[in-house]
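Recap slide: BAG family molecular chaperone regulator 1, sequence and predicted structure.
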Amino acid sequence: MKSLEETQGTQKIIVTWGKEKIHLDFLRQGAGSLEETTLKQLKERLKKITGVPVNGQKLVFSGAIMKDDTATLSSLGIGPSSKVLLMGTKPDDKDLVQTTTGSPEEHALIERISQSIEKTRTNLIPQIESLETSASTFLSNQSTNNDIDKTKSKLIDTHHYIIENLMQTLLTLDDVVCPPEFETARKKRREAVQYTQGLIDRVDSVKDQLLHTSPTEVKN
């Protein structure tokens, strides 16, 4: 008797991971088909092949990272012969020692948290320091500034831009769901949230000075 796969036939997609090309077969219909397989299920399948944790995988199709783990592959536009790019690395034993559970999934969550904060430090800290310096200079000299409103407006706009990016960091961290047993990851996430909120307070204090400090108060 022929198997279900032989009866229905299969469809194939190709996943590129570094120099490796992974050919994955899917049924043409029903469970195990592109129409019913979710992105999360694809990640689980790739984890077994590559060792890259589900939480550490980024799957790219048509130039965009696919983010909705509950979406089916067909709803994401993936069809027969589609090519998907897998981004992610398999953690080694040294990495896993740093986790509470020794789980690759916990390590992947810690990496996501660290990458988010490092991106914030690299992109926003210089802008925050520049805003603080510019605001201090403006407040110290605004009595002789012939274009006070325009300068203040520009500084406030910079404040808004930085705050929007910091809020995006908080949203990214909010998407990192750490199970109770992943104690190290949960601690890292709490620290990252506190750090980001501290930056928000720091930037908001600059805005408060711009809105409420008078030239006389600055000079004194």
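Strands lie at 10-17, 20-27, 58-61, 64-66, 83-87.
Residues 1-7, 215-220 have pLDDT under 50 and may be disordered.
(End of recap.)
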